[in-house]
Amino acid sequence: MKTQTMNRDWIATARTLSEALPYLQRYDGATVVIKFGGHAMGDDKEMQSFARDIALMSQVGVKPVVVHGGGPMINEMLAKLNITSDFVNGKRVTDAATVEVVEMVLSGRVNKRIVQAINAEGGRAVGLSGKDANLMVCETTDPALGYVGTPVEINPGILHGLAEADTIPVIAPLGTGAGGETFNVNGDTAAGAIAAELKADRLLLLTDVAGVKNAGGDVVTELTPDQIREMTSAGTIAGGMIPKTETALAAIEGGVRAVVILDGRAPNACLLELFTDHGAGSLIRAPR
Fold first, then answer.
1. What residue spans define the domains of the chain?
2. pLDDT value for 7
3. What is the value of pTM for the model shown?
4. What class is the 27-284 domain?
């Protein structure tokens, strides 16, 4: 009985690989930007699963670019250092002391953990931040928020070089200002700006929800920008989903072919989205 079960598993695996062939061909050489964030970052098994997906994507010819967040880790470190934060309209004020902690956590602990995980799965990853090679030049988003930046210029030369060397960039969302300031950048915003500059085939926004939901609470698997705007006006899209859909719309307007909002905690979420008929999450793209 055990042998028969194993044989059935092998057959199912072979069938899955065969069915994936058109998608493997479709994405060969394609640039895919992945925003990695949420609670999956803090779980070792989910981190390993994500890293394996990224390594496999690179192995089959996809050009992945990873941009990560790290809010919970920043909060943890600020608490340890007894650094209190002020908030304006629900948004953290990033003062000089806070931005130093943000850079330490994002470029150090979080970035290197992701790089190490991908390399452990056979990938070839290199960590950097938006400050390296002036990758992401920013302006102040709102003076009341301190060192929070909005990207105004993306210089992707370093990313092109890494892609040519079959190396996976893992990018911490920090930017540099005209005067050499360090800016904390929202991870989704950073990923969207980089994806637009690269004219990426896909931007995958990994989060803690299954996707964009309609008024009945069901995930909508495919949406147009106009439908996103209508659902936002109606209040169906609300709360934390609004900035993600705004990032998606900006990325599409900037030249990204499609954006997918999906649950990063789901096993093999990236592979399901790219290499299966079923996909995962909510795909947003202009009408064809």
1. 27-284
2. 66
3. 0.91
4. alpha beta
